[in-house]
Design goal:
CATH class: Mainly Beta
Strand content: 35-45%
Structural class: mainly beta
Radius of gyration: 18 Å
CATH architecture: Sandwich
Number of domains: 1
CATH superfamily: Jelly Rolls
Distance between the termini: 60 Å
Protein name: Cupin type-2 domain-containing protein
GO molecular function, one term: metal ion binding
Keywords: Metal-binding
Number of strands: 13
Length: 167
């Protein structure tokens, strides 16, 4: 390949089998191996990852986004989609669409005895607010052009007064 082809491939192509995977574990409920695909690519408004959830575990807390829309493609295994306080069986080949908003809090649960592998694709709207109904928390995220995004996790009851510490 020539230099231009190498540069284009570096910015535009990822193979999830070759990407470094990160273990995200918080026992007893959460255990997943994640390959973040969009990092250091040319993508500006899309994020993607491949997640492998251990048998009987969950990938992340029950949550909903105010701005981000998500899609999950179940690649291997089966499990349960917890959405809007209902449980829906999911299996390899299923494609799940989650729009933003409080109507669709969601969580993927591996309710089987084998690993559950899925592709997660999401819009990366900025700023973003994520709410966690089980714990009463929210996360505010502003990426902008900063090397390190602003990310704050709070409970609603911990809010400051708008005028706090202002002159």
């Amino acid at each position: 390949m020539n230099a231009k082809v190498d540069e284009l491939a570096r910015k535009l192509v990822r193979n999830f089998n070759d990407i470094e995977k990160t273990a995200e574990v918080r026992l007893p409920l959460y255990e997943t191996l994640t390959a973040r695909l969009g990092t250091d690519t040319a993508a500006k408004h899309l994020g993607a990852s491949v997640d492998i959830v251990a048998a009987g575990k969950r990938s992340c807390p029950y949550h909903f986004h105010h701005a981000q829309e998500e899609m999950f493609v179940i690649l291997e295994g089966d499990g349960t989609l917890r959405v809007a306080d209902e449980l829906i069986p999911i299996k390899a080949g299923d494609v799940i669409f989650i729009p933003p908003g409080p109507e669709y809090p969601h969580q993927i649960i591996n309710s089987s005895k084998a690993p559950l592998k899925y592709l997660s694709i999401g819009t990366r709207h900025d700023p973003e607010v994520v709410e966690y109904p089980d714990s009463g928390k929210y996360q505010a995220i502003a990426r902008g052009n900063a090397d390190v995004p602003l990310s704050v996790v709070q409970r609603k009851g911990n809010s400051l007064d708008y005028w706090d510490d202002e002159p």
